[in-house]
Design goal:
The protein is an alpha/beta fold. Helix content is 46%, strand content 18%.
């Protein structure tokens, strides 16, 4: 059977579930639809809802709101494709026109979202940056002091890379499948993987972007496996891409010979970690990440101190941790 057909068939239920979620959250306000002027209105704007990680993030936001519905109103939104920066810019503008008090955003691009967020900030809307950090130099040049809530992506990727390195020999060849290269978290995860490979004495023979997407990563991984016959590992900057890479390894008949690692700990990769098709991933707790960002916004709106960086947890996930 065509490997791409197998890939789509295997993950069709997940895609259907995420489409359902997209329809649910894109409708607008969650919880009580009547807005009181005594309650702040907070908008959560995420990246691709085709990625299970952001489905989990949205669910975390909904849970936080259900537990604190008397404190604020919530609007949850997300773009369909991770690379559709213009759609996310449009969402920010829509939230500005709806008069929200705060925007909590996981930006699709670390630079391209800054102009519209600058306009929101100048209009008196509090902006809280989560997950993917906005470019520090541009923010400084524009005199924008935006709080960031999120994990140390480089450290998380380094932990994953170290697990891979323990299974390899010095001078073994590895490849990195990056996220969108203009995003801060993609850069940091690549650097973390490189840190671990350098420390272990491995050779990084290829670095290419899979644009955070399963199918594109599947194509990239297939090409890497064809070009580099001695490849021993594929380090993927998120789990969606790791799923694509694992399918490419399977299609090439290289299970057990080429290790696959990811980042995010979405539920779809846990069976692969359990059966050895993937060796490790990192859990940055997307559900908590959204809640922390919303809570940071609420604290600031109520007169609290605007903390520049709030570091959140990232944990290593392997077969051993899954069985504990």
């Amino acid at each position: 059977m065509n490997p791409k057909i197998c890939l789509h068939a295997r993950f069709l239920p997940i895609a259907a579930l995420l489409c359902t979620f997209f329809l649910m959250v894109s409708c607008g306000d969650s919880g009580n639809s009547s807005h009181s002027t005594s309650r702040p209105k907070i908008a959560l704007i995420m990246k691709s809802l085709a990625n299970e990680f952001f489905k989990t993030m949205g669910e975390g936001a909904e849970k936080h709101h259900s537990e604190n519905a008397d404190q604020y109103d919530l609007i949850v939104n997300g773009i369909k494709n991770e690379s559709d920066v213009s759609a996310q810019v449009d969402m920010v503008e829509q939230m500005m026109s709806r008069g929200v008090d705060a925007i909590v955003i996981a930006p699709a691009d670390s630079k391209a979202l800054i102009p519209v967020l600058k306009r929101a900030s100048d209009a008196g809307i509090l902006v809280v940056n989560i997950d993917n950090k906005l470019d520090s130099e541009i923010l400084r040049d524009l005199d924008m002091n935006l709080p960031f809530v999120g994990p140390d992506n480089r450290d998380g990727a380094r932990m994953v890379g170290e697990v891979v390195a323990q299974q390899l020999q010095e001078n073994d060849e590895v490849a990195i499948i990056e996220g969108i290269t203009t995003t801060f978290n993609a850069i940091q995860r690549r650097l973390g993987f490189e840190d671990a490979m350098r420390a272990g004495g491995m050779k990084v023979v290829s670095k290419q972007s899979g644009y955070w997407e399963m199918e594109r990563a599947n194509n990239v991984a297939s090409a890497m496996l064809s070009e580099h016959k001695n490849l021993r590992a594929l380090l993927c900057a998120n789990d969606s891409m790791a799923l694509g890479a694992a399918a490419a390894v399977r299609a090439a008949g290289l299970e057990g010979k080429v290790l696959v690692a990811g980042f995010d700990n979405i539920s779809a990769v846990r069976p692969l970690i359990s059966n050895g098709e993937m060796i490790a991933t990192a859990d940055q707790h997307g559900d908590k990440l959204a809640a922390f960002g919303i809570q940071a916004a609420l604290d600031i709106l109520s007169g609290g101190v605007k903390t520049e960086v709030q570091k959140t947890d990232v944990d290593l996930v392997t077969r051993d941790t899954l069985t504990r």
